[in-house]
Write a structure and sequence with these properties.
single chain, about 190 residues, five-stranded antiparallel β-sheet, 6 helices, globular
Length: about 190
Amino acid sequence: MTELEELVLTPGERARGVDADSVVFSMDWTGEESPGELASFVADRVRSLGADPADVDTSAVHGAAEDGPAPERGDLPVRQLDHLSGVLARFGCTLLVRDTGTDTYELLVALTGGREPAGLTHHGLPVRAWGSPSDTALISLDCPNCGDMLVWELPTAEADRALAGECCDCGAALFDAAGRPLPEVTLHD
């Protein structure tokens, strides 16, 4: 049994041999397929972990998005996850995200008693508290010469060194010798 399974599964689920994969919620970076799915998942997990999730609701996030400037595509899920992370803290729970290197959020709810877990993995991939820094940097850009999109996923500590002198397949120089993007290169946010 891993530490992650001890945090995300109830004693009954562990006794029945339930796998942590069965308590993962996957959501595309653009958001839920149906409004309320994420809040329902979080409420169900909090309830199974022994708390009353009466105020686990993302409608407040949807309402704020309607009142303020219109969110860009992909902004609403981040706002929802930020909101739910704060709500979960009141229950001694933590919203966890599994870093898969894709544009999908793989989410778990862990009973942590308020402490932020560190060093967790699931199927060899890092799992961290939502909002905590990732150990990897996703760097993407469009080549200023040919327009091809280029993407690198690198350990954060090594990103600059790994990109030093990097060029596109078309031959266009993208980064200087220190790993900084050249003036004509714009990184995606």
